[in-house]
Design a protein that fits this description.
The chain is built from 3 helices and 9 strands, in the order αααβββββββββ. With 184 residues, the protein is α+β, with helices and mostly antiparallel strands. Strand 1 and strand 2 form a beta hairpin. The structure holds zinc ion (ZN).
């Protein structure tokens, strides 16, 4: 009898801890999403690119078109940048808009290139994505509206964000200066 009572109190305590954790997490999420929503409207500095669907199809590879224009996702661990550590900037593969820096890139273990921040908040847009039965925040290029990936609130400091971006949506531009002319 004593043991059963002991067990009941342990379970009660655990239950309270779980509820408190869930409550805190929910409020953190709300805070992060509220912050993202505020950023999403700020696109004043970005040139808008408007192409027809046919023009996009012609200017992109099949895989780029599927990811960028049809909200596709490349298979994890398949992209050219998830395990890549070059110093430079990542541009939108559809329009060349500057999006991410190697300085905020980190290895998240997700299988996709991950960044904890963008170069300029006005260069990306975010919006809620309810596909696949999940509530996620979609990241789009503010210049051409192409789908880049998603942002999650489980990234490292200082932002706590994880921009999970498809390699195929990015083009890397190195900023490393070569010392002699034959290094190309
Ligand atoms: Zn773009």
């Amino acid at each position: 009898m004593m043991f059963r009572r002991f067990l009941t109190s342990i379970i009660s305590v655990l239950l309270i801890i779980v509820i408190i954790t869930a409550y805190i997490k929910y409020h953190t999420l709300q805070h992060v999403y509220a912050g993202l929503d505020q950023n999403s409207g700020d696109t004043t500095m970005v040139n808008q690119i408007n192409k027809t669907d046919k023009e996009w199809q012609e200017s992109l590879t099949d895989e780029q078109y599927r990811v960028l224009r049809q909200c596709g996702t490349e298979p994890p661990y398949s992209g050219k940048y998830y395990d890549f550590d070059g110093e430079g900037q990542y541009l939108c593969a559809a329009c060349g808009n500057v999006l991410f820096s190697s300085e905020t890139k980190y290895h998240s273990g997700s299988g996709w290139p991950s960044f904890y921040d963008v170069i300029d908040e006005s260069n990306v847009k975010t919006q809620e994505d309810h596909s696949l039965g999940m509530k996620r925040i979609e990241v789009l290029c503010a210049s051409c509206g192409s789908h880049l990936g998603h942002v999650f609130p489980d990234g490292p400091n200082p932002t706590g964000l994880r921009y999970c971006i498809n390699s195929v949506a990015l083009n890397f531009k190195s900023t490393q200066k070569s010392d002699s002319t034959h290094q190309k």
